[in-house]
Design goal:
Rossmann fold; flat; alpha/beta; 6-stranded mixed β-sheet
Length: 367
């Protein structure tokens, strides 16, 4: 399953530095707007201690972790929806990703310019949200025009869709993202709009210059009544010292211990994975232990399709055990083969087509 998260933000907030720290790639990093023009793309391993424990249990020759794709997108500026900066090119890159990781500058540094010449994370969030909303309004207005002809012909589906699109428009005009304007059961009817504000957002507050482990500062509140400027640090996101994360790339584990610093990137990667609505199941054996990525709520046949389409189309049943129960069986089996012991104790369940896979399931498919 290939799903991606776009790293966005205003210019000079630390997007490309975060991307470099995440992917260990060398990318252009400079103190001027639009240093990144074409998106950088990197695949990042999802940290999961369960994988190593299962591989050790099975004495696997190969271990394959889950992964998530990050895309470093150029900095957005006020007026992007009208073509300022990289304008439509920037917005099209966001449209192609499945979720947004928005880097918000929350540190002072006179040597690094701010596009608005002030540090105000809440206002920065508001600027980007406003541009995405303006772009979505243009999309929605075009769709409403296209629906008018279908509605005049009394097409029931078109009438239903028009009502939902009008709700979205009203929400956007009130400054509300599309994902908050409609209910989840209405989404399927309009998901083909591919609105930017449908995408879930994880905020990463860049607190560069603050030692890892210290308390992060509060976000300054802008003057005026714009509630978007009053988002507290940590709201729907995490704080991260991105410059320190970059410095840690070339450090050995001994050096990190000596300095008393450790990376917090794993937390970001796991949160990004969750943001995409993803979960993990495992297959394990002597040849390979692998973490498979699926959408939360997938049934056993749908999960099997992550391995091969035959596992869905020719699905008969699935043998399922929780990863921890399997490892517990190793300790309790008293010399008996753990799989046999687990089966005798009823820990391995036989599940059919309706079974909804749970995060951490170890599965053997029968086709």
């Amino acid at each position: 399953m290939s799903l991606s998260i776009g790293i966005v933000g205003l210019p000079n907030v630390g997007k490309s530095t975060l991307f470099k720290a995440l992917t260990k790639k060398q990318v252009d990093i400079a103190n001027y707007p639009f240093c990144t023009i074409d998106p950088n793309v990197g695949v990042v391993q999802v940290p999961d201690e369960r994988l190593g424990k299962l591989a050790e249990f099975s004495r696997s020759k190969k271990v394959v972790p889950a992964a998530v794709e990050f895309v470093d997108i150029a900095g957005l500026v006020k007026g992007a929806a009208e073509g300022e900066g990289l304008g439509n090119k920037f917005l099209s890159h966001i449209r192609e990703v499945d979720a947004i990781c928005e880097v918000v500058r929350a540190f002072e540094n006179e040597k690094i310019t701010h596009v608005h010449n002030k540090i105000d994370p809440g206002n920065d969030i508001g600027v980007i949200e406003a541009e995405l909303i303006l772009a979505d309004l243009e999309t929605v207005n075009k769709r409403l025009q296209a629906l008018e002809k279908e509605v005049r012909s009394l097409d029931k589906e078109a009438i239903k869709k028009q009502e939902i699109v009008k709700k979205i428009k009203a929400g956007l005009e009130a400054g509300k993202p599309a994902r908050e304007a409609i209910s989840p059961d209405e989404f399927d009817s309009v998901k083909d709009l591919h609105l930017l504000t449908f995408k879930p957002i994880l905020y990463v507050y860049n607190i560069s210059g603050i030692s890892l482990g210290e308390q992060a500062p509060s976000i300054p509140v802008s003057e005026g009544k714009d509630s978007r400027s009053q988002i507290p640090l940590g709201f729907n996101g995490i704080s991260l010292d991105i410059k320190t994360e970059e410095d840690l790339i070339d450090m050995s584990e001994e050096e990190k211990k000596e300095l008393g610093v450790e990376s917090n990137l794993d937390k970001l990667i796991v949160e990004a994975y969750k943001l995409l609505g993803l979960m993990t199941f495992f297959t394990t054996g002597e040849d390979e232990t692998r973490a498979w990525t699926i959408k939360s709520g997938n049934t056993a046949p749908e999960a099997g399709a992550a391995i091969h389409t035959d596992f869905k189309e020719k699905f008969i049943r699935a043998e399922v055990i929780n990863w921890q129960e399997l490892l517990n069986a190793v300790r309790q089996s008293a010399g008996k083969a753990p799989w046999i012991y687990a089966r005798e104790k009823g820990l391995i369940r036989t599940e059919g087509k309706e079974y909804v896979v749970k995060d951490g399931d170890v599965i053997e498919f029968k086709i």
